[in-house]
Fold these 4 entries.
Entry 1:
Amino acid sequence: MTQFSYQLIAWYNQNRRELPWRDTTDPYAIWLSEIILQQTRVVQGLSYFQRFIMKWPDVFRLSEASEQEVLRLWQGLGYYSRARNLLASARQVVNDFDGVFPNDYKQLLQLKGVGKYTAAAIVSIAFNKPHAVIDGNVIRVLSRIFGIHDPVDTTSGMNQIEELADTLLNIKNPGIHNQAMMEFGALQCIPVSPDCRNCVFNDQCHALKFNLVQVLPVKSKKVKISQRYFHYFICTEAKGKICSLVLNKRSDQDIWKGMYDFPMIESTKEIQFEELQKDTSFLNWASNPDYTLTAVSDLFTHQLTHQKIFARFYHLRFNTDIILISKNDLSLVDNSKLDLFPLPRLIDRYLNKLNGINC
């Protein structure tokens, strides 16, 4: 054990959070937690982990779920490709490995949605095999303490990180070491304003010594953010006590694949309703639409990794029956059954603020 690993694990034993996936070596639970925690904070991911474990306590039962069920339970976490990969990966384990998670790093990489980080986490934590994990937390910790100045989004920078992580790894307790590294980055060596005065490595930290804490790690690439404007039409009809509305299943070629939202027109800037009515795609899916505009929402914003979405919702109450000319991905749904459909976080936020849809 290196001195670094000794200090790190000692810190971890005193400061670690009590989390359900830390008290088990069950690869299913560890895999599930790692997929959920990709791009997600622990405080948010914990409740989702508990929901998934309760509904699908093993990989066999998860493999039998439908994509819509998985997406619905995943709703609100974002990065929905993770949910689709989760289901595909569960089916791979059942079909290709008889329901037993492989304990080999390379075999784990064959699973849908499992990359180097997740494979290393599973083999080290579940099977005690020496593979160093490297995520954003680990990169930040190593860059600061050991003074890695090459951009970490370059080959040379990442090579240095990987070599250092492998050198420091505690080969007798790789699972504990890896969890300690991730926890240290999440709780102590945080991105902004870390408490360096009370850090166990403050006497050997390169970034602290040279006043580079807010500089390291270095990144060379800036993410270009595109802006998209979504004009949603919430189209409803009432028949007696039944309120129905039109839902749209998202395309496989865009964000939120396999989820549901409302018919909409996209533009490169914000435009008025009168202009939307002139668009050739406006309600072109309905036969002789006769409607009344009953409400217009404020502008909602939703930030994704590479996109910023601006959305406005127009409530259209149809005065006659809604007749879908070409259904394609559109369907008329009883409003009371809306909870059965997986919705993007943007749509869910709006509906929660609205407290439901009335005809």
Entry 2:
Amino acid sequence: MPDLDIIAMLESMMGGSHVMAWIAHFMVGSIGYGIVMALIAGTDRSKNFTLTGAMVGAIGWFMMMIAIMPMMGNGLFGLSMPSGIMIPIATLMLHLVFGVVLGKVYAKLVAAH
């Protein structure tokens, strides 16, 4: 799916800076998702942080599909892109994997304190 180049999309939104697009992407992924994870999960060790992480990933995916994709001119869920339905499917899988990893790392951090 060469038409799904998030960095190039961010670059066009941010005035053409490739470095700033990468920084923004990492900031959203680490700080943004981390804060949302902490707010939702808290420090209760009885919670399933892996499932919570997957939920955070799904929420991020949904926000991307209904807000970011249309702002970039790709329509809801990116369906106006050449890859069509593969865009939301692939990005959902990527966000869920990221969310699970986030949940696992968060669980280790909570256990360490």
Entry 3:
Amino acid sequence: MKSLLKNLFIPAAIVIISILGCGENQDQQKEETTEEAKQSESINLNEFTSMQMKGVEQVSVEVDLDGAVQRLSKAVTFPTISNQDREDFDTKAFTDYHKFLEKAYPNVHKTLKKEVLGDPRPYSLLYTWEGKDPSLEPALFYAHQDVVPVPDDSRDQWKQDPFSGAVVDGYIWGRGVLDDKNQIHAILEAAEMKIKEGWQPSRTIYFVFGQDEEVGGAEGAKVIADVLEERGIERFAYVMDESAPLTPGIFPGIQENTALIGIAQKGFISLELSINGVGGHSSMPPEESNIGIIAKAITKLEAAQFPYRIHPAVRSQYRYMGPELPEEQQPLYAAVAFGKDGEMTDMEKKFIEVMSGNEVTRAMLHTTMAVTIFNAGIKDNVLPPSASAVVNFRPMPGDTPEVIIDHVKKAIDDDRITVKDISASTPATNIAEVGNAAYNMLEKTIRQIWGNDLIVSPFFVVGGSDSKHFQARDFAPDVYTITAIQLENTEEFKGFHGVNERILVEEYGKSIGFFYQIFDNLEELKK
């Protein structure tokens, strides 16, 4: 997963408590409290009730866990790494992994149509499981083959070799076992089981396993989304991708086990700011150097932040999470949940004020910008003839590449600097509907496997995954993202892109059961 998940899932609850008791002085605090009290009275808290599904009967799915664990363990040994330098690509790792999948899941490869796609490197996998009723809208399950690199200076911190796939102390260890090969293999294990039982879906089901999610998905997921769109698919009934695993305490203030379902993602664009001029000797410098000009532009840009606003996905998140938090906080959550776009109450302004003071929660409120690369200079006594910087933006809906480029040019106000889009930019996605048949089917499946003693809530994904290439299109208005595996605690997030990535053997069995069950539950969805 591209973003650091241990930071991604620290929603505003971490700072909400301070809203209810902060103030520069007592008089100001009294005025704010009085105003908030008035607004609280205007909110009907009787309507701010729990949105949690009740009374779902659990199911138990019998899985060949020993065999499944061996197959996932072997999968980890293929170093399908995505490096930022796309020429540094291990083709053998991917082709060997594909051959292994064919041997590991023979019934899947006999029954489903397999295509190997991607541009300029074709290593992404598209599987088509033909349904019995072609009139039904298809479903799509997404996961990615690639993993992030393991830095050499971190290898001695691993308790098991990162590409060993070791099964030790009740865990499967290794790079990609959590992000995201567990999802690939849980899907294929469940499909293999279903095919052995003679089962065929009513609607066509697609599996998409990308090759470059960790670097944006332009070679894999985007190409496959283009292909499916060109083939005339009008609408998917259900699309699911990875994001947050089930984790107790993932939402501060709630200790219960929590399943967060991503319903929207921010976009992605990287701009290069560059200048080309005359170099020379450092003993005779100009009044402004190329480095100084770019540095001044970056300073201006960082001072011109995009405005804050409350995204509809954030409102949905607090509509579901708010009623589960302490009663004294609920007026504030209700104000956010029931607020209207384009209007801003004083309570919502206070919410934004506090959230914007935290680097994690701030990202939920506006299009962010981050200076990530600076290139200039070749020698300490030579004036560089050119200088450049790369700024990465994560756009909110409405902030298109054109809007962002215009914002940058106005902020820096310097015609000497060229601004260029150097990324496979993607806009912010649609917002998946919450509470519809597809969302409810997903929540039901989660509860069938992991029980009713957990909180299920939508949330706004400030990072991104490959499904953004689908969700930004008309044929996939509703994309739901969740990594269908249980973590013991938030400490396990350190394995995402870090050291000692691992999952519990027992929980992997439940992941397989989840996909087995969701294939059945898809039958309940209407056309």
Entry 4:
Amino acid sequence: MEILSLKDSVEKDTFFRKLPILAEQLPRQIVLKKLLPLLASSLEFGSAAAPALTALLKMGSWLSTEEFSAKVLPTIVKLFASNDRAIRTGLLQHIDQFGESLSSQMVDEQVYPHIATGFSDTSAFLRELTLKSMLVLAPKLSQRTISGSLLKHLSKLQVDEEPAIRTNTTILLGNIASYLNDGVSIYVKLPAASLTAISQQSC
């Protein structure tokens, strides 16, 4: 890990893709006490490739909830501010692995402002990942953020050029309706026929 800064991008990528398997073969205490902190630091300071995120979450799964929150979560929160598209994509793809550990304050103040840029990304894949991440994150958002930001983004996605994104936006609105206050809920209420038509689908 200490000499990774001397490696080129291909070598780094290869190393980090193999790391989850290699970590399984090493003594658990060495991984958690030595390798995990180095990996977290490498990700934070940009010397680790995007595949390192998978390794970080793999190692993090061996920690208790309290240790995960102390040793892994701070790095994850910082990574949401990354301009690296691959890092952003990886975070969204794995959000179900750590989303529940994020506090409402973390999501509202530190995570969502960065994730929200994905709603208007030029990549349809990233727009859809951003949309799907709201299944995990929307319940942790404040009413102010939901009504002042999230619903505006979802309104635009309802007319997205991609049919799958339009459909999943409608599904998401139905799923998060219970988290909206009464006034907002009425505003975004969907026709019963629309909900019936997609009730068998999942976001």
